[in-house]
Design brief:
This protein has helices at residues 3-20, 38-52, 65-72, 76-87, 98-114, 134-137, 139-146, 160-174, and strands spanning 24-28, 56-58, 90-95, 119-125, 148-152. Helix 5 (98-114) crosses helix 7 (139-146). The protein has a 5-stranded parallel beta sheet, with helices on both faces. By secondary structure, it is an alpha/beta fold. It has a single domain, classed as Rossmann fold. The chain is globular and about 60 Å long. The chain has 8 helices and 5 strands; from the N terminus they run H-E-H-E-H-H-E-H-E-H-H-E-H.
């Protein structure tokens, strides 16, 4: 088998792995229905970019988590935590709404205490950078030591950094330590 055939076979194997194994991203922040706000616009852009790259993206209020909450009498917090624990590989949180700040506190605590494999990406308005506040000294510091924090202009953020990071995480998650698809040790 020649070099081109080996590379093509390898490409097919990786493509199949990504089809069979979904990498689930829970994308939190202001509702994408309110596209006048920069945080909502950013959330929508990230969602579309990740979906175009074949990530499974869930937005709590837009993907039926609220419906499940109402149907089964769950509270929003327990509903999201259960979903994250069972299905998510990554959280991307745009901290620009009261709900997102609440999620940040809860999810950052969960990440440190219970989940080594969950990636956590936090995007906060650049106006808070360097500020001595509970936000920066608490949840943002926790995420930064176990994930990635970006202080940015929410209206002008390069989402490619998020996509690239999650692509690398997905590759590491689905490949063995030698860079081969699991079970393909020939």
């Amino acid at each position: 088998m020649g070099k081109e055939e080996i590379l093509e076979l390898y490409k097919e194997e990786i493509t199949e792995i990504f089809k069979e194994n979904k990498f689930v991203v829970f994308l939190c922040g202001p509702s994408i229905k309110n596209t006048e706000k920069p945080g909502a616009q950013l959330r929508k852009q990230i969602m579309e970019a990740l979906q175009n790259d074949k990530f499974e993206v869930f937005l709590g209020e837009d993907d039926g988590l609220e419906e499940l909450q109402e149907k089964f009498g769950l509270d929003a917090q327990e509903n999201e935590m259960s979903f994250i624990a069972k299905y998510c590989n990554a959280i991307v949180l745009i901290a620009s709404s009261i709900g997102a700040y609440c999620e940040l506190g809860l999810f950052s605590y969960y990440k440190v205490k219970y989940s080594d494999s969950l990636d956590f990406i936090l995007i906060i308005s650049e106006e808070y950078k360097g500020e001595k506040s509970y936000l920066n000294l608490g949840p943002a510091a926790v995420v930064d030591s176990h994930g990635k924090v970006y202080y940015a202009d929410l209206g002008n953020f390069n989402i490619e950094q998020i996509v690239k990071r999650l692509q690398h995480r997905r590759a590491a998650f689905f490949m063995d330590s030698r860079g081969k698809p699991p079970g393909k040790r020939t």
